[in-house]
Design a protein that fits this description.
This protein is of the alpha/beta class. The chain has twelve helices and twelve strands. Strands 3-4-2-1-5-12-11-6-7-10-8-9 form a twelve-stranded mixed beta sheet, with helices on both faces.
Length: 361
């Protein structure tokens, strides 16, 4: 089987992205997932290799097809300006935000052109990104702009065995993205939750595929809906979002032949999902999903962007400036993100209709 070509962006050079990527480089499972290449500045790659005592050569490439990764060979496709080299460790710096943006833009364009099969992104710092003049809340929204997709969705995914009992792992998709809780509640809609259920079903079906499944999902994903309010509002005592928005969305999703249930109190649905009762959960706002899943498996959780015409995964953690470039950051998230990207490459993503990708410079 031909290995997919997977481009890995370094993320913000002030954070833990470079050291975790190079610290994970020699992992057999990661190298077996695809033909890997790094997108970013080779000087930062070399610095991370020295920190992690990785004895390997850097091969500068101009085309992803040239990548021949090995334990002792790190292909690098240069992206970004030399100013990124001088970004200090653990400091918020606009140059770091620009470096993360540049690498992501190059990787996304390669994926859109079909020159790489997937991208895995190192963490960026949202404040540094904005300081560099790019007013996006994070990777998900920025990738949506690159790909011409107005509303991509975020799923955190734990593979099977990583703290969850389900045979296909557990995915938590978020109905709203990076915004305040007040704004997230105002943004909830029947249509948005139905679309979240559809995207969760599509991604979970793809993740359940195996080489012998002959291209069909192994199972029909069972999805649970989080309630917005405590105790699912206790029949309206604590709010009306359940009866006015979430329950109607569940009925609409079922009309699409989606196996959707709920809404259930957010504290109990995650316990049931961990035990394998549900393959996926739709959370109504960012922390409702993030906190629970990261408690289950912080360093094995994978961030997957749903609804794009390209495959993108990432670690589920941030830049961790407080421990950056000290050699202590956990590399497990990088390994899982690359392995999940490799799995997704064996089934093509859905086609996204629209006016085409937006060039954002």
């Amino acid at each position: 089987m031909t290995l997919p070509i997977i481009a890995i962006t370094l993320g913000d050079p002030a954070g833990i992205g470079p050291e975790t990527i190079l610290g994970a480089w020699s992992d057999p499972g990661m190298l077996a997932a695809g033909r890997l290449l790094i997108v970013g500045r080779p000087e930062i790659v070399a610095r991370a290799m020295e920190l992690k005592r990785l004895r390997a050569e850097i091969a500068i490439i101009e085309d992803p097809a040239e990548a021949q990764p090995a334990v002792d060979m790190v292909p690098v496709l240069v992206a970004g300006g030399e100013e990124a080299i001088d970004v200090p460790a653990g400091k918020l710096d606009a140059r770091g935000g620009q470096a993360a943006y540049d690498a992501l833009h190059v990787a996304a364009q390669l994926a859109l052109a079909g020159k790489v099969d997937a991208i895995v992104t190192g963490p960026l710092n949202k404040a540094a990104l904005n300081a560099a003049g790019h007013a996006y809340p994070g990777h998900t929204e920025l990738l949506g702009a690159f790909c011409g997709v107005p509303q991509p969705a975020m799923m955190l995914y734990l593979p099977a065995g990583a703290g969850v009992a389900g045979p296909n792992g557990l995915g938590v998709l978020h109905a709203t993205l990076h915004m305040s809780v007040r704004d997230a509640l105002a943004a909830l809609s029947i249509e948005g939750i139905v679309e979240s259920c559809r995207l969760a079903h599509e991604m979970l079906s793809r993740l359940a595929l195996t080489a012998v499944d002959d291209g069909e999902p192994r199972s029909h994903p069972k999805i649970g809906l989080c309630a917005v309010n405590p105790h699912a509002s206790e029949n309206g005592l604590f709010g009306s979002e359940e009866t006015e928005i979430v329950i109607p969305a569940m009925h609409e999703a079922r009309k699409l032949n989606l196996d959707v249930h709920g809404p259930f109190p957010a504290d109990t649905i995650m316990v049931r999902a961990r035990a394998g009762e549900y393959d996926g959960v739709v959370a109504m706002y960012h922390d409702q999903g993030h906190i629970a899943l990261k408690l289950l498996g912080m360093h094995r959780a994978v961030n997957i962007t749903c609804g794009l015409p390209i495959i993108r995964t990432s670690v589920a953690h941030g830049t961790a400036f407080e421990i950056a470039w000290q050699g202590v950051a956990d590399c497990g998230g990088v390994i899982e993100a690359v392995r999940v990207a490799g799995r997704l490459c064996h089934k093509l993503p859905q086609t996204v209709e629209g006016d085409g990708a937006e060039e954002v410079f």
